[in-house]
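residues and backbone:
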Amino acid sequence: MTGRAGDVLADSRAAGTKPRAGGGPRSPLTSAPIIRLGLMISAVIAVVAVALGASLRGWAGVAAASLGIGIVVVFFSVSKIAVGFVARRAPHLLLPAALGIYGFKIFLLGVLLVALDGVEAVNLPTLAWTVLAGVVGWVGAELWAATHTRVPFFDPATFATRDPGAGGSADRRAAPSPARVAPGPDSRR
């Protein structure tokens, strides 16, 4: 790498920290902003779902809407925390851990639905619609966070070690920085 980015990588390797786009050491990634946003969206969905459940199905609708949004909040929050824990401790196990957590959640949801099959205090269609709305809201929160935060989806230091041009200081001096390159005739438009 050339210029400032190469210097940041070299400085961060010497200091033993991971670089970030701003130049300083990268802070550990946290799931807190996504969980907060998911909780806010879930609260709005809960208010609407409980009101609709109460007006259409009575107390069974209220219980189902409350249980449904609770399931979504617990499942997504626990997943984010668990996957974040694995990502910090053993990143090479991230995919198996995420798939295992997902499979376990689906299993638990199936067990819960079978257990609630004959219960009249919980309206299952209201539960299902609330869970669907909660999942769509939470996934929307994660999508928004993924598109509006500047979190790299790769480790720049790992890819810099694979780049043959990033190895020595002579390579950095030989390559011109983008600021020193003279504009060509096609650059004026």
User: Anything to note?
Assistant: Residues 94 and 100 are 10 Å apart (CA to CA). Helices lie at 3-15, 32-57, 59-89, 94-115, 124-148, 156-162, 169-174.
